[in-house]
Amino acid sequence: LSPRRFYAGLMDVYSEFSVHAKPPVSLEGQLYWREFFYLNSYATPNYHKMEGNPICRQIPWSDNKELLKAWEESRTGFPFIDAIMTQLRTTGWIHHLARHMVACFLTRGDLWVSWEKGARVFDKYLLDADYALNNGNWMWLSCSCFFYQFFRCYSPIAF
Description:
55% helix; single chain
C-alpha cells in the first residue's frame, strides 16, 4: 500500500466524520512520522548509529552485554517486558506501543543500554523491520534525537 493511496483513503474517511483524532496521535500523524523518518534517514550521515551522526546526542551508554542478552531473551524479571520480548521472538511482531515500552526499558528507562543494540535486535526479529523507521524510533524513544525534551517514558517502575 503506497503512502499516497493510504493518505487519500484516510482523507476520504475523515471527510465522512467530523470528529477524529488529530496529528501527531492520529493515523495521519503516524503517516507524517513515517515520512519524517524516511527523509531523515536519507539526509543524515550514519543515521543508524550514534557515532558520526550529526543529529544524534552522544550519550555514554552502558555496554552491559548481560543486560542486553537478558532483555533479548525475556529474562529481565519484569513480566510485561519479558512477555513483549517473547512475543517479538516467537511471532516477529509487537504492537507499536509495546515497541515503545521495551525500547524505553532498554535505554533510558531502566537498563541504560544503547539504542543501537536494541535496533539491531528489532532488525533481527521484526517481520516489518524498516531501516528508517526502526532507527528513527529508537533514537526518539531513547531521547537521543528528535524532540528529546518530549516526556514519554514507558517504564514499569515509573507508572
